[in-house]
């Protein structure tokens, strides 16, 4: 199964000390790029969270936000006097450099991180709960990426079917188009009342057929389509491989267009390029 790099997950858990919640958002990116937003009290989790992401995901820009709403009902507020004293001393030192400093607001001191604390909870227990909750959020994110990946695989297979239809139709048309080109050349010669050496004319027609031969390009397009299906079925981190195959498909479609000598072959090349571009855009979201 292939996975998309786009998904969202949210988990929440209420406990005696408060409510923990994780929000995970992922979008496509060339590499795995985690962005963590953790409250100061949970900074010790950063290494474990990054390792869990590295183990669980291969690519994508992933934003992880942890929120903790502490249960303060019935708990007395406490002031970290040592931290408040340090803050006030620092503020007074700065005020001494100003001619007319504004008075220090006590509420601003209380609002400084770490000055006003509630009844302390067990930090190790909170960290453990937060990490376990993150595991649930990561599983939810991976499931979401898997569901979207299945939809992407379905869309890609539909376009691969359309490509094979174009290839098969063009393969059948090639002999007709060559014969039409032959008749057109003969008709022009008759209109010009030109006397041409039949052997020479036949050689020119053979050279035209060789220059217009697209059998090799059609075979390679079919081969690449088969490989894309194999990669989709194998699953895993297939994004880079699929992106490479889209480039190869586009190369063959370009060559097909350059050899076109009939409006029908030109239109087939255009249709193939449109399908390949649609697939390429979808492949950018695959892990």
From TrEMBL:
Q: Name one Pfam family in it.
A: YicC-like_N
Extract the GO molecular function terms from the UniProt entry.
hydrolase activity; RNA endonuclease activity
Q: Which UniProt keywords apply?
A: Endonuclease, Hydrolase, Nuclease
Segments forming domain Endoribonuclease YicC-like N-terminal: 2-153
Source organism's superkingdom?
Bacteria
Q: Residues in domain Endoribonuclease YicC-like C-terminal?
A: 171-287
The signal peptide here is none
The prosthetic group or cofactor this protein requires is: a divalent metal cation
* Similarity comment text for this entry: Belongs to the YicC/YloC family.
Q: NCBIfam families this protein is in?
A: YicC/YloC family endoribonuclease
Q: What is this protein called?
A: TIGR00255 family protein
């Amino acid at each position: 199964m292939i996975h998309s790099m786009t998904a969202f997950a949210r988990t929440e858990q209420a406990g005696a000390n408060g409510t923990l919640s994780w929000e995970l958002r992922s979008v496509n990116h060339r590499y795995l790029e985690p962005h963590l937003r953790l409250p100061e009290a949970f900074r010790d989790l950063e290494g474990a969270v990054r390792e869990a992401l590295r183990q669980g995901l291969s690519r994508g820009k992933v934003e992880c936000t942890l929120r903790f709403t502490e249960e303060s009902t019935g708990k007395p507020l406490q002031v970290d006097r040592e931290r408040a004293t340090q803050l006030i001393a620092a503020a007074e030192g700065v005020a001494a450099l100003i001619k007319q400093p504004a008075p220090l607001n006590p509420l601003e001191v209380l609002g400084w991180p770490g000055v006003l604390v509630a009844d302390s909870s067990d930090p190790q227990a909170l960290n453990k709960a937060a990490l376990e909750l993150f595991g649930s959020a990561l599983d939810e994110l991976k499931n979401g990426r898997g569901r979207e990946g299945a939809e992407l695989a379905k869309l890609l297979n539909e376009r691969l079917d359309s490509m094979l239809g174009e290839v098969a139709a063009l393969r059948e048309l090639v002999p007709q188009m060559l014969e039409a080109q032959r008749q057109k050349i003969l008709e022009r010669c008759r209109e010009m009342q030109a006397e041409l050496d039949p052997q020479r004319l036949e050689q020119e027609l053979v050279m035209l057929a060789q220059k217009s031969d697209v059998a090799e390009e059609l075979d390679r397009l079919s081969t690449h389509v088969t490989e894309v299906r194999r990669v989709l079925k194998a699953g895993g981190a297939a994004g880079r491989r699929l992106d490479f195959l889209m480039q190869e498909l586009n190369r063959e479609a370009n060559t097909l267009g350059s050899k076109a000598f009939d409006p029908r072959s030109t239109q087939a090349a255009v249709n193939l390029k449109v399908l390949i571009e649609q697939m390429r855009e979808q492949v950018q979201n695959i892990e």
